[in-house]
Amino acid sequence: MDICIVPSCECSTMKNREIKTMSPNQCRAARGLLKWTQPRLAGASGVGLSTINRYENETRPPRPTAILRLQGALESAGVEFLFEDGSLGVGVRLRKN
Fold this sequence. Notes:
This protein is mainly α and 97 residues long. The protein has five helices and two strands. Helix 3 crosses helix 5. The longest helix is centred in the last third of the chain and has 13 residues.
C-alpha cells in the first residue's frame, strides 16, 4: 500500500486521504505533557519559534507543512492526538510504552 505524506501532492493517494492536524490548544497541551518549552519544540521540529508562538496564540496560522512538522515532533516524543469521534472530543495523551 502506497502512502503519500506530501501535503501539496495531487496524486490519487493524497486526494483520498484525510489528514487530521492538531489544533493550537492541542499543541499547547502536548507541550505541557512533555514539559517542553516553545524553544524546545522549535528545535525538535525545525519550525521557527515565532511561528510556534503565533500558532499557539492563534494570532496567525502557519503553513500546513509547519503544523505537520510540529505534530510529527510531538508524536515522535510520545504524544497521541485524539480527534473528535462521535461523542468523544479532541485531546492529547501520552502513548503507553
